[in-house]
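Weekly sync notes, structure subgroup
Attendees: PM, AL, DS (notes)

Item 1: joint prediction request from the bench team. They want all two components modeled as one assembly rather than separately. Inputs as received:
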Amino acid sequence: MNRLSMLTTSLTTIGAKIIFIVQELGRLGIFFFRGILHIFSFPIQISKFLDQLYFIGMKSVLVICLTGAFTGMVLGFQGYYTLVKFGSEGILGTMVALTLIRELGPVLTAIMITGRAGSAMAAEIGIMRISEQIDALETMGINPIRFLYSPRLAAALVCFPLLTAIFDAVGIFGGYLTGSLLLGISPGIYFYRVEYSVQMVDINGGFIKAVVFGAVVITICCFQGYYTHTRKEGFGAKGVGFATTSAVVISSVLILATDYVLTSFLM
Amino acid sequence: MVQPLIQLQDVYKAFGDNVVLNGVSLSIFKGEITSIIGKSGEGKSVLLKHIIGLIEQDRGTILYEGRSISRMKKGERNALKKKFSYMFQATALFDSMTVFENIALPLREKTRMPKKEIRDRVRNKMHQLDLDDIDRNYPSQLSGGMKKRVALARALVTDPEIILFDEPTTGLDPIRKNAVHSMISDYQHRFGFTGVIVSHEIPDIFYVSQRIAMLDEGRIIFEGSLEEMQVSDNPLIQQFIQGQESRRDGLTGLPPQPQGERRYQEEMARMRNDNTTFTIVILTIDNLDMVKKMGGYEAQQTTFKQFANRVQQSLRITDICSRLGMNKILLILPRTRKEEAEELCRRMAEKFKSEGHMEIQTYPGFCFSVSAGMAEAEMDKPIAKLIAVAESAKNIFYEFKVC
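Output from the run, pasted for the record:
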């Protein structure tokens, strides 16, 4: 009997958790679709879109350039010392360019923007929630999802691919710095290999990833902030702290998971 | 019977096991200010949030002009929302926007008004609420009273038909508190909106509201006018009123109106038994509005406070003084005939004049104009009637100026 009741208790707990997860996913789905829909609802919120474009895009350029440069430089080093063992250091350009364009560009860009802009969004929207500012929007008849989430989503869908492109270009140049200037591969060969091996399909794949990551990161970050008040583990300022942490952690994990799924489809 | 503008019928709401509203029924009439009073944590704010749709009830209906809001189509609901405004307890100002942007937001987002018109309207509202020159400040740079006023400006800027105030004055000192009340009352007189105020500020809130509803243990146990409240035989309400009588008016330190009325009844009983008489005097500052125009709402309230203090100081020990309204004080003078009361007022006026100007300086040459109406008590005449007699033109005995 005792064993039976223990079993029911644990089943109830598991069931409750599953129901919670399904509900949460449903809520996330509705949140996302309403966000997409309101990007196109009239009147288009041009000025808010531009503000976010500046915040997510323009303000991330420096950080993306730095990460891109160092990633490319490291790839140049590592690639050279691996390839030189096989006597094929000439294809360093291929290696650096494809690694960046297909994988590291979109993934690292997304992770960097999560840290820089996503966390800020989760905190900002979370504070608006706990200080009743979102309720205030509702009482004015302003749709908070349209007002807060849609412009950010639209801006992210534009910014992520562009920032990824910058990351890729700077990274390839970084590979040139270490590979050619430092380790002596002929620049001609390096750039010839880059040009020769990169196909349009690689670039498209990278961009598709960037767009998907953009949607994932911004949706998760805004969602976490927007529903701060429903968190059970902490209220108020603590709740916002948790929301920000979850936003960054969930976004980062999801970036890598989605990357795997997308790669297996795109390959 | 007049149809209520908003009607709550048997509204029930629980959060988990905690039942907050347990069958609330309440009517709100057009063009009136209804105050919802009750103990803290009774769910007054929750009730207010139901009216605007921030919280959905578990059971029961909320009707707008006789039609259920929850059964309205989305478009209709949105249109209805435009008629409402809500002032939050913690102001809920957008802290990353400037004061100007905060007030302009509802206009920018929900109307197609040209920029210039929005700017004019916002500036105008800011001016009316003594908020000039802070349009570029952020809410965190403002004092509590100013934030409340910005929130009030934001609620008023769309010229809504219905405004819901959730404790608009909590945390303010008596003068600022009454200044906010006075602003609400002023706007209501001018634009005739329908207001619902959740408040703890008793008795101050009574002076601005036409109807009072009392929430207790999840139900409305009373709704009606202040006069009806005083004659209610519900023991809970009686207990509440008696509790309030010992309180003093937050602004003037005078006993509130209900106490004045109880003392009136006592004097009436004395008149019946001992055959003595008494006289009531209504002192009104006629040009208190001028003070507001020249010096703002806070100056107006400070003036009234000082005036009330002076009146109190010049009374005899047996005289009873209580606040009657926004700019009125009721005096009950026991064992006094009307002629004696006139003499008393004359002395008071002379004293005021000789002491000169009150501390507030509006502008040179400005005089406060005070009128004193008086009436001698008649057997078993209700206080409201006697007040009307005292205020009728032929009994306004004395008008004096303090410069």
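Discussion: The two ends of chain B are 49 Å apart (CA to CA).
Action: AL to compare against the crosslinking data before next sync.
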